[in-house]
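Quick question about two entries, pasted in order.
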Amino acid sequence: MTEITSSRDERHLVGEVTRWFLLTGNRLLVSLVPLAILGAYILHVATIARRTAAFGPFVPETDRRSSDDET
């Protein structure tokens, strides 16, 4: 009778440990998702800023061409 009880206790302990790991993993995932979204947004904005950065005067390219043709 003692062997049956000990194996039940072991199965119960394994179930508790498994449940603990699942709950901890879910909590970690839920807490890190907002940081991942924020990081993705920052990278997105930085990429757009780098691609659209232009050096020089704030004159559209069509205006520059027409002013170059006149001189």
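Here is the second entry:
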Amino acid sequence: MKHKYSSIMASSLAKVVSVAAIATMTVNIIIPDHKQSETENRPLQTFPSWNTEHVLSGQYTKDLNTWFSDQFVCRDQNIHIKYLIQKTFGVKEIQDVFLTKQGLIEKTGKPNKEQLERNLNAINAFKQNYPELNVGFVTAPNAVSIKKAHQII
């Protein structure tokens, strides 16, 4: 008797999941694409155009996958729920963004040494060209540096 009940439950669950998947795909196709994510401040993938070259190279499949990820129904709500779950479990950093009690702080990249050298040369050249001026330099820390120094992150 237990086996019969289990197979009925498994069959019912498979039907419910199948109907939900088909309904989600249908809604995703019907709803017009969003052009911009205000939450992430970036453009979203539009439905890829089909051509033989992209299909054969595999680019069409990659673009279709990105489109589906970007245009998924209730995408922002799902991202928010995932964020809340990660924060609940004590995750401090998600994809180079620090989660703090005050909000989200983006991790800064490593300094470009070539650009730093150009900037220092420009400051020194300015000082040499205008010796009568008192030239100074201040490096201001960003929020990540301050919070790390105070062990908030």
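Reply: The radius of gyration is 26 Å. The mean pLDDT is 82. Hope that helps.
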